[in-house]
Here is the input.
Amino acid sequence: MIVIFKKDAPQEAVEALCQQFEAQGLKIHNSMGQHTHLVGLIGDTSTVDVDLVLANAAVEEVKRVSEPYKKANRKFHPEDTVVHVGNAAFGAGHFSVMAGPCSVESEQQIEAVAKSVQKSGAALLRGGAFKPRTSPYAFQGLRADGLVLLRHARSVTGLPIVTEIMNPEHIPLFEDVDLIQVGARNMQNFELLKELGKLKTPILLKRGLANTLEEFLMSAEYIMAGGNENVILCERGIRTFEPSMRNTLDISAVPMLKQKTHLPVVVDPSHAAGIAWMVRPLAMAAIAAGADGLMIEVHNDPPHAKSDGAQSLTPEQFDRLMADIRHTAEFFGRTIHAS
Amino acid sequence: MIVIFKKDAPQEAVEALCQQFEAQGLKIHNSMGQHTHLVGLIGDTSTVDVDLVLANAAVEEVKRVSEPYKKANRKFHPEDTVVHVGNAAFGAGHFSVMAGPCSVESEQQIEAVAKSVQKSGAALLRGGAFKPRTSPYAFQGLRADGLVLLRHARSVTGLPIVTEIMNPEHIPLFEDVDLIQVGARNMQNFELLKELGKLKTPILLKRGLANTLEEFLMSAEYIMAGGNENVILCERGIRTFEPSMRNTLDISAVPMLKQKTHLPVVVDPSHAAGIAWMVRPLAMAAIAAGADGLMIEVHNDPPHAKSDGAQSLTPEQFDRLMADIRHTAEFFGRTIHAS
Amino acid sequence: MIVIFKKDAPQEAVEALCQQFEAQGLKIHNSMGQHTHLVGLIGDTSTVDVDLVLANAAVEEVKRVSEPYKKANRKFHPEDTVVHVGNAAFGAGHFSVMAGPCSVESEQQIEAVAKSVQKSGAALLRGGAFKPRTSPYAFQGLRADGLVLLRHARSVTGLPIVTEIMNPEHIPLFEDVDLIQVGARNMQNFELLKELGKLKTPILLKRGLANTLEEFLMSAEYIMAGGNENVILCERGIRTFEPSMRNTLDISAVPMLKQKTHLPVVVDPSHAAGIAWMVRPLAMAAIAAGADGLMIEVHNDPPHAKSDGAQSLTPEQFDRLMADIRHTAEFFGRTIHAS
Amino acid sequence: MIVIFKKDAPQEAVEALCQQFEAQGLKIHNSMGQHTHLVGLIGDTSTVDVDLVLANAAVEEVKRVSEPYKKANRKFHPEDTVVHVGNAAFGAGHFSVMAGPCSVESEQQIEAVAKSVQKSGAALLRGGAFKPRTSPYAFQGLRADGLVLLRHARSVTGLPIVTEIMNPEHIPLFEDVDLIQVGARNMQNFELLKELGKLKTPILLKRGLANTLEEFLMSAEYIMAGGNENVILCERGIRTFEPSMRNTLDISAVPMLKQKTHLPVVVDPSHAAGIAWMVRPLAMAAIAAGADGLMIEVHNDPPHAKSDGAQSLTPEQFDRLMADIRHTAEFFGRTIHAS
Here is the structure.
């Protein structure tokens, strides 16, 4: 960490602050420039609160040099982490596809979609029971009943299930869910992250719509700091100025995350654009850029879906896409897992 | 709502969709353009799911004409809502200032700050007990103990208190809090909003860092739809590309929100920039733009604050600022409330 | 185009505006909703000025239904346009790579890089003579002398050249340049676009850092409206909140642009991230998403480059990448062109 | 400037780079951290090219400590600069209002508006002759004829004129313009900035829609580096995710710019929101935040304006607003100038 002092900072204030740092076990390196006096702090600066240092009237600026995340940091854990969920695996060349409807709507629907995506080669069944909706007047999901239906579909097909949690109070309901999803709007719901850190279940953490990669990794760090190191990161599109798509897939996030962390990184091309015909090119790009898996929305009857129909593929479309995904993943050296 | 069909949409598909709309009680107005066929939907379209309509293969685009929020909408409630919290009041010309530390740290600290801001003219005491922090390794607040200390400061000064809730499980702890704050990162924590909608306590809802004003109002609508119509909106800075400040105050949000909704709108200039010296010009701008109140961080010892020291004023700085706020609010025709 | 009137708009004002539209040859379709009165305008609305209509006190909102671009619009020109530059071709399955240094620095440098990238399989030589630099104190390019050196490298290798123009006054200097580039910062330099519309030389138009796809296509329309329909669009990264990369590659822009327009779309992975090691994954993603070509920075000695060294590949790195590009482009069904 | 080396950077590479820095006259301060080796560079680093340093394989990151602008930097020029244009003055407490139509349309129009805004108290007449329009099919301004009409309005009223230049080739036409405006889309048209740096005429530089304050100041630096130090900065709204307004006024830019530079800062509330009724609250906020002037669009007949009618005030509205501006500017201690 580097602390830059103001041009006219009183010498005593500088010295007092440096003594504080030393009291925290940090070493101080002074650098006097033409117009600038700065000090480098040597040691474990992850607990130094940048805001506090900035509050000192003598300080002009503070720059972090080392990342504030540790458990998620590839520097301290160079090998790829592989997260296993049933027969599915993510990371270190292992590639799996999660597929299913945005919302669980009925036993018949989820069972039909589950059988279909399994046949096409998906390794997990996705389906929303608790749905975050912008409007209080929109369908909010079948909630606990939806989880029952997902378990039913799992018992029929053997596919492990992934579904979203929105409330720490619901954790008991998610006890035997195979992979618990944290949605984009809850990426910084720190109370929820802390509770999930106490579980053993793997977590699929989606990136917030306007969050930096460091913030994303700090949210993973929240879960990992609690003891749960089975975290899969999911890039699902960021908010930009472009109105023709719901969000903009940040494909660069895939290689950059994989450079910064050992955790697996998957892509959700369905939410990224919100448009069914764009799922294919974005899925191909995700594989080419190094993703460890994909999450794709499939609905038996998109125009009558209860949510997000615009981005859902039909089972037939998914079947054709899945063939190409397999082919492309192999071309790029990935081992694909099915159920 | 306007539905635009694809150039080559089959006539049967168009008719089938129109029949669906009519079955929902909507009337259809057809418009055939040179290159475009569109229909206008007349009636209550707030429950039409745009995504579903977009999922129809015949549809090219859907445009909402009327706002999806009702209870928060000024069109259906032209007069300003006034929210009262103790002696404080917000809206319809009533102006109040909330002040206090980012985090409650000790009995001595919160009592001293409370007495000081009260003397300067604040109408509410703010103080964080549960703190949303980006890093799991940063100070997370005194939590339940912090609430005890806030109540103590209230009993000493008589100042009503405002503090942030992060978890629906904590609602019992907030029972006698005077004004419950929902932080920017939880603006779309819909599970929390729903629970707060069941309370009678007024809610201070902060705008998310990258949310539109419509999303902001839809979150207010979540609370109001549950029956709690005492919502104060708080603009606290949005994320932009500018690195010299933590966030960028969206001053335009003040007049635009007040045109769209009858709810009071306050501004938090401390979080907006994250820099103590900027609080004054931003506070002045907020009053000039029509804000119904301000929320300002004051700490007895900013360089030793446990969070956000960089943006905190000292009690002396706040006292001087408060004099100017009073003077300026009067100049702009506001009635200022103190405890 | 749809015009939505205010709830309380006086009938005479509405009628007067509608008569104005009819006088412009447009037909009017009325729709009276519960809370809304709107009219649809049928006919060629591309010359209707949205701002003017909004200025009418009776009007609440105006929504465009059809795109404001014509010549670039795929609706009126369904087949892909192929742009040929020497032996290179872009579009309709034709794929070419442009490679070379950010800046032309010396005869020796540009000749060496040209020979090297040609050997590796590039179809065009890129090199900046006029350089847009944020700082007036940074190297501004060799300017006219740089163009002389590029021509020299072309005469030695036969590679067509692509280089950036920044000033309409310089057009005579660019007379025999094979492909003239408009940089991101000049995407809305309308005076320059108009002048380039009068030429026959193909134009490589880069997307601005914060521009929408519609604005991008409107800038292409400026060139095409002048008579020059040989425009290649280049996605080169947009500005986002992510600080770990210079820009963020908008991979979704590739399929979305190709759906909206018949013009070829290429990707510049070097500028998109500004980091040499990211060029490979982003180049792969671009091919997978459907790009018609790539523009890649190659420098004989990146650490001593006069600009943008951080993102340049060495000739050896480019040679290995080019082999993979060829392989991947073939996998995705593209025909690759070399010089 | 601080250079952070990679964890495993070879010692020879580090030393070689340090020798390069020393050869440029810089002094080196070494800091060896636990996981990091960094050096501080002492001396004039404004000519060090960050990209080049980053291109070195041994380097992980580079952080600037001192600002890259000099002539615009308040550190080296602590007193406010006052820019005089006729009787108008901007800076150091001097406050002036520029008003007039978006586009000059006819002799009658510009003369009528000029007389009217002069009577209301404007100090300069604004009017666009060369208009940057997103669409090639929209009205492009009267161009050279518009300048003739502006001069005519000046001769009738004595009001100095401000109008936008878009092309270095047009400089001869702008010879006797009193204040030359560079529009937001040309903020980084460096060729144009360089040419304007050779003039003596004051320049009104508008901030680009997605540019940082440092980029804004670097563009001012381009003009100042050429010898023309009479630059007025204009904040006119930035692009954000909010669709209900054209742009979002960045009110924080006013105090932040004034802290970083000695140049005057004005605000254009008309373009900031693009909505006539928002001009008043934003103008008030601008004065409260410390602006040195305002630029406001006034049109004799907004619904028939040839551009930007939606944001124009009528002369009567401007007259009432101008009274409040005067009153408010005085309240905030500014000296207001009229013609």
Chain B has two domains: 2-63, 74-337. Residues 2-63 of chain B form a domain with the Alpha-Beta Plaits fold (CATH 3.30.70.1140). Chain B touches chain C through 24 residues (CB under 8 Å). The first strand of chain B starts at residue 2 and ends at 5.
